[in-house]
Amino acid sequence: MRNVIALDVGGTGMKAALVGADGTVLYEARRPTGRERGADAVIETILGFAAELQALGRARFGAPAEAAGVAVPGTVDETSGTAVYSANLGWQDVPMRALLSERLDGVPVALGHDVRTGGLAEGRIGAGKDADRFLFVPLGTGIAGAIGIRGRIEAGAHGSAGEIGHIVVRPGGRECACGQRGCLETVASAAAVGRDWALACGDPRAGAADAAKAVESGDERAVAVWRNAVDALADGLVTGLTLLDPQMLIIGGGLAEAGDTLFAPLREAVRRRVTFQPVPSIVPAALGDAAGCLGAGLLAWDLLSTEVTA
């Protein structure tokens, strides 16, 4: 049975799969990233995990993987196959595509940015499959975006397209890791909401999910924290839709798990802010935390398709 390797590398965990030609997940597995062991150890874990999948595919399905796709966080040069930089994983200028291909006995490898790869999956087989143009925005530890155009994801001239989390929505506000102040992700990410709610309620263990539950129960402190985040998110999204004019805004990540507690006020906040701009559909992501892995599989099959065409 024909198959490809798909790997989604996160800051804390890795998701992997063998994916069939029709998109069926034939096998899936997870393991810790182990970033506390250092960049070299993480890289070796990725290579070893991929090699295990290759061997399993050969044994279980009678055929080794024909290609591999891997999604990684941070700055990614997809053309050269280089993981340029990741603060979370501690690496810089890693020739990931070459290293993986060598470990996999010359199998072709596609390297992608984790959010853009997740956006690819949402656009083809998830919430955006009927949208010609969309913006995928996962709200997690940070905020990034993937710009979907006719079945592909726009990477930009330097691989930095879609960094909506670093639009300044609160000038002079909280300092961001990027060096600016008041970036969207310092106010509206799941991490930011969790931090603000922990301060408001006095429980350092509280997170964004706890804030959402408190909002649903009518806690006024939680409502204030939530409104602050939703207002900032709406400001950032309106900037994005003004520039890109998407048919759909797809919101994912941990904060989106709050459902209507997020989407009802967010849709209203966006509607209040627009003037001439058409308001796109604002919908939850459909694939959850599987999007990056499924997108990596799509990258691998696309790579094979391109090679055949060439």
Written description of the protein model:
This protein has nine helices and 13 strands. By secondary structure, the protein is an alpha/beta fold. The protein has two domains: 3-117 and 289-309, ATPase, nucleotide binding domain (Nucleotidyltransferase, domain 5, 2-Layer Sandwich), CATH 3.30.420; 131-285, ATPase, nucleotide binding domain (Nucleotidyltransferase, domain 5). A five-stranded mixed β-sheet has the order 3-2-1-4-8, sandwiched between helices. A five-stranded mixed β-sheet has the order 11-10-9-12-13, with helices on both faces. β9 and β10 (146-149) form a beta hairpin. α6 crosses α7. The longest helix has 25 residues, at 220-244.
The CATH architecture classification of the largest domain is 2-Layer Sandwich
Strand content: 15-25%
Overall average residue pLDDT? 93
Biggest sheet details? 5 strands, mixed
Sum up the overall morphology in one term.
globular
Features:
310 residues; alpha/beta; Nucleotidyltransferase, domain 5; five-stranded mixed β-sheet; 9 helices; 13 strands; 41% helix; 22% strand
